[in-house]
Design goal:
Blueprint (H helix, E strand, L loop, with lengths): L3 E4 L2 E4 L15 E6 L12 H10 L3 E4 L9 H12 L4 E5 L4 H10 L6 H10 L8 H6 L2
Parallel strand pairs: 2-5, 3-4, 3-5
Antiparallel strand pairs: 1-2
Helix pairs in contact: 2-3
Length: 139
């Protein structure tokens, strides 16, 4: 499992397996957000299996699916609400981690500049420059 710190309160990962979730609480993670639609591709663990594994590990689990490079305002608002309402670290995941890190940057709960959000994502290994204009509007 490759966890990448984006900020002190947000970590991103590519698709994990249910068994991976048990170790997250030891890393200070208290909540998991899945940004993938259920059954997006063959072999992906089911949403129910991931939710149950998170709950068994004592983690809150949220499903905010986005697809096709689209980040609807409602999804960004839901992501922001989870981030604001969660004490401790939040882990966001999707197939590669890109949708999760983009949702976090768009939610901008830390109130930082668009450039700082782009740089934080880049340090974690993600290029979110495609949403630069939208990030600038949310600063």
């Amino acid at each position: 499992m490759d966890l990448r710190n984006v900020s002190d309160s947000f970590v991103v990962a590519a698709q994990m397996q249910p068994a991976d979730l048990a170790a997250l609480a030891g890393d200070g993670i208290t909540s998991v957000i899945c940004a993938r639609p259920d059954n997006e591709e063959p072999g992906q663990p089911s949403l129910d299996a991931m939710r149950q594994a998170a709950q068994d590990a004592g983690l809150a689990f949220h499903h905010i699916p986005v697809a096709g490079g689209e980040f609807p305002d409602a999804a960004v608002a839901a992501f922001a609400a989870v981030r604001r309402g969660t004490p401790g670290k939040v882990l966001g995941y999707c197939r590669s981690g890109m949708r999760a890190v983009t949702l976090d940057a768009l939610a901008n709960i830390e109130g930082i500049s668009a450039q700082d959000r782009i740089e934080s994502a880049a340090r974690a290994g993600y290029d979110i420059s495609a949403v630069t204009e939208r990030l600038a509007r949310s600063a």
